[in-house]
Amino acid sequence: MSAEHDLGPSVGSYVETASSGYSLLNDPLLNKGTAFTEEERDLFELHGLLPPTVATLGEQVARRYQAMRQLPNDFERYVFLRGLQDTNEVLFYALLVRHFEELLPIVYTPTVGLGCQHFSQAFRKPRGLFLSIPHQQRIARILAHPRFDSVEAIVVTDGERILGLGDQGAGGMGISIGKLSLYTGCGGLHPATTLPIFLDVGTNNPERLSDPLYIGWRHERLRGQPYDDFIEAFVSAVTERWPHVLLQWEDFARDNATRLLERYRDRLCTFNDDIQGTAVVAAGALLAAVNVTGLPMREQRVAVVGAGGAGTGISSLLLRAMIEDGLTEVEARRRFYLIDRDGLLVEGMPDLLPFQERFIQPRDAVADWVLENESRIGLSDVVHNAKPTVLIGVSGQPGAFPENVVRAMAASVKRPVIFPLSNPTSRAEATPADLMAWTEGRAVIGTGSPFPALLKNGMYVRVDQTNNSYVFPGIGLGAIAVRARRVSDAMLMAAARALADISPARLNPNANLLPNVSDLRDVSLRVAQAVALQARNDGLTEAMDAGDMYQKIRNKMWAPLYRPYRRIN
After folding, report:
1. Is residue 422 within 8 Å of residue 394, measured between CB atoms?
2. Rg of the chain's alpha carbons, rounded to an integer?
3. Phi, psi (5° rounding) for residue 198?
4. Is-catalytic flag, 32?
5. Which one of 7, 161, 327, 565 has the largest count of C-beta atoms within 10 Å of its C-beta?
6. Catalytic site residue 552?
């Protein structure tokens, strides 16, 4: 007894549908391809439309995997997988889940960056919603279509700051699609409950505007009140249509990301993954690193290169962890050194943004520093004077962690923790191989994108991919399962601690900080449980015991398996 798009998690359930023939085969949520049984081919008039062999899902996965491996590069594999997703979602997710470690860098970062850059050229079939300024008055009507009745999770972007690649216009839809693929692959949300959305407010990318194949609205990017009015129209329509939806903001530019989050975080269940998801995984990895370095959170000194939404978001969550470890807020704030394009954030610096003010260093705190350039306090100055124990990069600037700076950090810190988190791989502040060489093998490393294993003490060691995919699927799963009304800071801290609790380094200081990527479904479950429990403790969901919560979460975790079909009139 299942809905047409099979929202039930039970393996033994069946799917009822009135579709048949080509309409059934053309629906990616219903299509089984050659796995339709003889009986189903009779019922749904599929004989002759399919070759006679009836295949198992395992055989289909093997066939698609072999075809994908024969393609010449990862971008071609990305396009291939997107085509498979638009053809047969069960098969796509079965392939993804069985080969997580190999396919995650293709479905998501770093290859999704190429997908966004070439989105218009590779566009074949619409997925999700493109909501544009010329159709602002139609938003509510568009969302009202019955095909969206089951939606529980939305990822939305305006495409202005795609990874470290900047304004990609309509190509930003690739990010929304990719993120939701991980919500399903890692978190188990049924694909029919997810909706990628691109808010088309124009683009300032001249390459996109001059491209005759560009599929977006050909207009300079809208700013100011018209932009805000469009966002308000969108959020109002979403909350009216789906009162309990989870809305994730993705890859909005610095000037919009933080203020939109602050404006709407108390109106619906919402979070910004670039700000808060990045903060959770960084905090979780750093809490795990305590087991390796032996230095408690209250004694850490943190330098962050990139003082935008992600940098301040990471710092805010780490600040909370320091306070929970015994420091006052004033004491904890003095342990953060945020560096932006104009250098260290210090008192009196012009053009500081409101969300940066919490991490401004007083002038008297740096008055006796020895500086390379009196007019600007750079990363090298921070390392030589503050002697940070942790260095985090969210700048999108390759080479932002140069050799001389890393060597200077390692000279004063026994086990320096260094996280170059910028995506895609080409934007990383430094490579793990260089960091390991420059620190004589002492660095504790986490990266935003995948890198090859490192040779350490005669053995190859996996590089920890400190990527948001470890946390955002679980945050969303937990919030949706218990119908949390908001996403609180305490829920995010609970997610970070849940990730740290399952760190292999917790039992073995020589092990990795994070579980293997192949374990992401289990990681998401643990994170979801912690988030749901904290939502209850914060009074953001109805009262229920831990057992009921766990069952609600498990019931939301769809598995990519074929169910038997029944035809209805």
Report:
1. yes
2. 24
3. -115, 125
4. no
5. 161
6. no
Structure token digits, residue 315: 């710092």
Give the length of the chain.
569
* In the block, residue with structure tokens 């009921």: 548
Q: What is residue 3's predicted lDDT score, i.e. its pLDDT?
A: 44
Q: What percent of the chain has pLDDT over 90?
A: 93
Instruction: From 188, 184, 204, select the one nearest 196 (Cα to Cα).
Output: 184
Name beta bridge partners: 566: 16
Contact criterion met (CB below 8 Å) for 535 and 491: yes
Q: Is 82 helix (H, G, I), strand (E, B) or coil?
A: helix
Q: Model confidence over 98-129: pLDDT tens digits?
A: 999 999 999 999 999 999 999 999 999 999 99
Q: In what order do the strands lie in the sheet with 153-157?
A: 129-132, 194-200, 153-157, 246-249, 269-272
Phi and psi torsions of 384, nearest 5°: -75, -30
Model pLDDT, residue 527: 98
Q: How far is the CA of 279 from the CAs of 304, 393, 499, 519, 525, in angstroms?
A: 12, 12, 12, 21, 19
Residue 358: exposure state from Cβ atoms within 10 A (0-12, 13-18, ≥19): middle
Among the listed residues 93, 108, 337, 470, the single catalytic one is 108
pLDDT over threshold 70, residue 78: yes
- Beta-bridged to residue 129, according to DSSP, are 197
